[in-house]
Amino acid sequence: MLLDHMADPLARNSHGLTPREYLYYVERFTGEHNLEIDGLLRSKEKSYPADKAAHDERQRKAQLQREKEYRKKHPLEDALKAKIVGQLGPLHALASAIRRKQNGWHDEDHPLVFMFCGSSGVGKTELAKALASYLHGKQMDKGFIRIDMSEFQHKHDVSRFIGSPPGYVGYDEGGQLTEKLKECPNAVVLLDEVEKAHPDVLTIMLQLFDEGRITDGKGTTVECKDAIFVMTSNLAQHEIADEAELLRLEASVSNDAQTTGTATAASSGAHEAATDHNKDQHDDGEISLSRQFIERTIYPILYEHFKRDEFLGRINEVLFFLPFSEDELREITSRELRRWADKARVRHGITMTWDPDVVDVLAEGYNIRYGARSIKYEVERKVVNLIAKANENDEVMDGGRVHVIVDKTTGNKRRLCKLEIPERGGDDRKPTSAGWFGSKK
């Protein structure tokens, strides 16, 4: 039965014997000869290489079919939208490129390479993480490789990137990138703040992108044609912000067309506005505003910094990330509140709710310099800290309830939040020095 399920007839046991050699060893002591088993083992030894290759090919095709069926049931766009707020343009472009790769419509000799441009905290890193999570699932720890390129600003940092040559310090440690790619050759590799890397490091990356493999300090060739490389950069962030309104309108039109097959009246008007802007600026209605913006605004900025056409030429897609709109900020805030409500329920059994205008107050804390992170800090500072203090002081007990409201007494200059905590067994609320709290029982 083991042989029928592709057990290796040439495998050796702890004593270094193959199954047929072990059979011969047993026969010497028992004096019994099993010609049927001996013949079967001899036959399997001869046919095993071809049988194993055919078996592996069947397994590979079956796995590809299972992956294809999974992708039909769980589209990549849906998985990314569940984790990313806004950024419809880069989201759809990334998903489209990944689908082509998965379906065999890509250059198999080169890895996919993306450049994500935009200000800090607009979802560049989160989109790369969401992609890795979709592709690798439980193997996320190996399937997502993050390299902070600000740590490779000097010429000698190349050795840390791919490993030191023999005789040099760090030889045994290997390179930060190459060692991880050995473990997972099809990983999603995030090269964060790539504009800060030394030119010699970029030369190594060019070899990586161009040949789909890299030689580490030990002389070992690491294959990475199946990897997906995502470079992030803050370059062109101000230019992106200046064109954000029209670019967002165009992305919205494209999303409507993809999800419904038609554009709504509002989005049709947006498309006309974007098209009129195209014609006014470039007299070219055939190329989308976003494509023109990349070619005529972003690419010159990238070239001015990197000064290497061959490096930029190996990038499959340059994608820009827009500053968040007001609606997107409210959605980010709501998600962050829901995340903390889940934590409160799981960790302390506390039910956490809030008034709708709490979302507006917290969204006002958005700082474009820090992006979505500023919303997270605002929620922690104005809401989580209050609940934590109330819990520590036993004003809200584990298993209790807490409701967040806007403090109307502070005026419009510095709007704050406060808590309402019902007494056990009812909804009566009593004020205390820290807000509205029920008395302890």
Short description, anyone?
The chain has helices spanning 19-30, 35-73, 76-83, 88-102, 124-136, 140-143, 158-162, 176-183, 199-211, 237-242, 244-260, 265-282, 289-306, 309-312, 326-348, 356-363, 372-392, and strands spanning 112-117, 144-148, 188-192, 213-215, 221-223, 228-233, 317-320, 351-354, 401-407, 416-420, 431-432, 435-436.
Q: How would you portray this structure in words?
A:
This protein has 441 residues and is of the alpha/beta class. It folds into three domains: 19-71; 76-233, Rossmann fold (3-Layer(aba) Sandwich), CATH 3.40.50.300; 326-423, Helicase, Ruva Protein, domain 3. The chain contains 17 helices and twelve strands. The strands form four sheets. Strands 2-3-6-1-7 form a five-stranded parallel beta sheet, sandwiched between helices. A three-stranded mixed beta sheet has the order 8-9-10. It is globular. The termini are far apart. 32% of the residues are buried.
Which properties best describe this structure?
Rossmann fold, disordered C terminus, 3 domains, single chain, alpha/beta, three-stranded mixed sheet, globular, 17 helices, five-stranded parallel sheet
> Nearest-angstrom radius of gyration?
29 Å
Low-confidence stretches: 1-5, 261-286, 425-441
> Would you give the CATH topology of the largest domain?
Rossmann fold
User: How many E strands?
Assistant: 12
CATH superfamily of the largest domain: P-loop containing nucleotide triphosphate hydrolases
Tally of discrete structural domains: 3
Q: How confident overall, as mean pLDDT? A: 79
Return the CATH architecture of the largest domain.
Answer: 3-Layer(aba) Sandwich
Distance between the termini: 68 Å
Main β-sheet description = 5 strands, parallel
Report strand %. Answer: 5-15%
Strand order of the largest sheet: 2-3-6-1-7
State the order of secondary-structure elements, H for helix, E for strand: HHHHEHHEHHEHEEEHHHHHEHEHHEEEE
Shape: globular
The helix/strand class is alpha/beta
Fraction of helical residues: 40-55%
Number of helices: 17
CATH level 1 name of the largest domain: Alpha Beta
Organism: Lichtheimia ramosa
Protein name: AAA+ ATPase domain-containing protein
Region (Disordered): 258-286
Biased composition (Low complexity): 258-272
